Amino acid sequence: MTGKRTLVLDTALRLLGERGPRALTHRAVDEAAGLPAGSASNYFRTRAALLIGITGRLEERDRAAWDRAPTPRDTAELVEVLCAVLRHAVTADEPATRARYALTLEARELPEVWEALRAGHLRLTTWLTGHLRAATGDAAIPEAAVRPLIDYIDGFALHHALIGAFDTATVRSTLRTLVTAATTLDLKQS
């Protein structure tokens, strides 16, 4: 990704997360990024294109965060990695977490944005399923068994980005329960 394009997307993501969907305009992105007028629209002609770009940038940032984390060798390490990623999402990366949920609301009116979010969610589910399979040595764990874990992560991040207060012990315990459930659910024949 080019430097200016990344700057446009990171600025748009921050505006969306900090000030909400109404503040997200091409002009506001240009001003906040310190770019000449028309820069954002050169990369993203429409609002939908800008929102899809933000969706892709969020996924790219998520992937980078996961890639920086140690590769879990077992489910206990996977729980710790998930806990650390969640803590980061609701503290240091809170504007991005808020932007993710603002995108979800905006996407209800824009099918192409909704599809971009859905595709990213499916890629995350596939990726996490792969890590769970590797951590357990069980290649038969289906993606359907991982969906409740993904749903918890999404819901937890939203709740805590809006409410605050990260309780590590509770998060760790809940993640442990969900990881265990994902490895034992009788969905392997489905």
Q: What is the element layout, followed by pairings?
A:
Layout: H1 3-19, H2 26-33, H3 39-43, H4 47-68, H5 75-90, H6 94-107, H7 111-136, H8 143-163, H9 168-184
Keywords: DNA-binding
Protein name: TetR/AcrR family transcriptional regulator
Organism: Nocardia jiangsuensis
Could you please describe the fold and organization of this structure?
By secondary structure, the protein is an all-alpha fold. The chain has a domain at 56-184: Orthogonal Bundle (Tetracycline Repressor, domain 2), CATH 1.10.357. 77% of the residues lie in helices and 0% in strands. The protein contains nine helices and no strands. Helix 5 runs parallel beside helix 8 (143-163) and helix 8 packs antiparallel against helix 9 (168-184). It starts with a helix and ends in a 6-residue tail after the last helix.
Q: Which features does this protein show?
A:
DNA-binding; mainly alpha; 0% strand; 190 residues; Tetracycline Repressor, domain 2; single chain; Homeodomain-like_sf; TetR_C_31; TetR/AcrR family transcriptional regulator
